[in-house]
């Protein structure tokens, strides 16, 4: 017997589309949102001191998203990957679930050297499409857990696969968005140097801030302030000053890497976002840029600082700016400004 149609309703209005589902099962294409939903669900089915999604980058394990207050780990915290339980888990050398880490010698050794108590561990890798390790989903507790914790394994398989799929989709979408923005940046150029102008720089930073936080990507901010521009302008004229600025722009453009963002921010100031660069790689970039400026007959003061998901680009800019002014004062033989 068919169900009666609601009075006044259109044909088919009585047909159910499907049951409403809980928030953790709602579809999403954002890796950050997916991480939050996965951790909320895991915390419900298996309460632990903390559940986390981490990123492995530059041999560090970076905590992107966390749930639980058992350890007080802040988002953005990082530890050496070699000193974590996730390293041997991801390599397939230790089990993904250890209700009592004392029963697994390698985990017990890591726990013995930790600054906090870890007696139970759960972990599963997150891989990108080419099979490389992106990070992990992991849980820690200061007390041993029942053996029934092993029942989580099928759920871990499912959730890590889902996160990997969402991650791949989000990375593809982000890559296409960045390609579109790169095309748009061509209209935001500085007329004198042909580099990105301040407006384009600000728009890039605004758009990329959330993406860098979502994926835990590495980057460094480099600032250059030219020396002697006023002297050149006053002594040789503004045309000579313009040539001085263009020489600096050409020297910088010759040393930045594909994917880096180089801009003239106004006057005698330039900025570089070295995408994916570690602090050591940023320092090497600065060394090459300094040599290129000298060869072009230009001098300037540099400062650089790493991006972090805690301080963001504003914090990296502030630190790089302070480092640049400290170098400028040293070059002029002036005393350091008290911190």
Automatic annotation (TrEMBL):
Residue ranges constituting the GGDEF domain according to the UniProt record: 217-339
InterPro entries, sorted: Diguanylate_Cyclase (IPR050469), GAF (IPR003018), GAF-like_dom_sf (IPR029016), GGDEF_dom (IPR000160), Nucleotide_cyclase (IPR029787), Rev_trsase/Diguanyl_cyclase (IPR043128)
Pfam family membership, one: GGDEF
Gene3D superfamilies, A to Z: 3.30.450.40, 3.30.70.270
SMART domains: GAF (SM00065), GGDEF (SM00267)
Annotated PANTHER family: DIGUANYLATE CYCLASE DGCM-RELATED (PTHR45138:SF9), REGULATORY COMPONENTS OF SENSORY TRANSDUCTION SYSTEM (PTHR45138)
Descriptive protein name: GGDEF domain-containing protein
Organism: Pseudonocardia ailaonensis
């Amino acid at each position: 017997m068919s169900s009666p149609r609601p009075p006044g309703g259109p044909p088919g209005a009585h047909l159910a589309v499907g049951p409403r589902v809980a928030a953790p099962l709602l579809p999403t294409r954002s890796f950050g949102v997916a991480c939050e939903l996965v951790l909320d669900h895991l915390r419900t089915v298996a309460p632990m001191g903390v559940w986390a999604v981490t990123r492995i980058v530059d041999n560090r394990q970076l905590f992107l998203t966390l749930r639980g207050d058992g350890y007080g780990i802040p988002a953005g915290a990082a530890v050496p990957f070699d000193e974590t339980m996730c390293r041997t888990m991801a390599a397939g050398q230790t089990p993904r679930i250890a209700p009592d880490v004392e029963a697994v010698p390698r985990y017990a050794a890591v726990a013995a050297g930790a600054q906090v108590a870890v007696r139970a561990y759960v972990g599963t890798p997150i891989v990108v499409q080419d099979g490389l390790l992106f990070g992990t989903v992991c849980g820690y507790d200061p007390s041993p857990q029942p053996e029934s914790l092993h029942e989580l394994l099928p759920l871990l398989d499912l959730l890590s696969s889902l996160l990997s799929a969402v991650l791949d989709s989000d990375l593809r979408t982000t890559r296409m968005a960045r390609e579109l923005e790169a095309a748009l940046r061509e209209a935001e150029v500085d007329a004198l140097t042909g580099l990105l102008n301040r407006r384009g720089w600000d728009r890039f930073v605004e758009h990329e801030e959330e993406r860098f936080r979502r994926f835990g990507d590495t980057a460094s901010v480099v600032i250059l302030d030219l020396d002697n521009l006023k002297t050149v302008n006053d002594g040789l004229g503004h045309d000579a000053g313009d040539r001085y600025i263009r020489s600096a722009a050409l020297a910088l453009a010759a040393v930045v890497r594909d994917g880096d963002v180089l801009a003239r921010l106004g006057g005698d100031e330039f900025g570089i976002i070295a995408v994916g660069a570690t602090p050591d790689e940023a320092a090497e970039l600065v060394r090459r840029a300094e040599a290129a400026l000298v060869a072009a007959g230009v001098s300037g003061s540099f400062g650089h600082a790493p991006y972090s998901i805690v301080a963001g680009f504003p914090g990296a800019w502030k630190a790089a700016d302070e480092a640049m002014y400290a170098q400028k004062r040293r070059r002029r033989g002036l005393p350091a400004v008290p911190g």
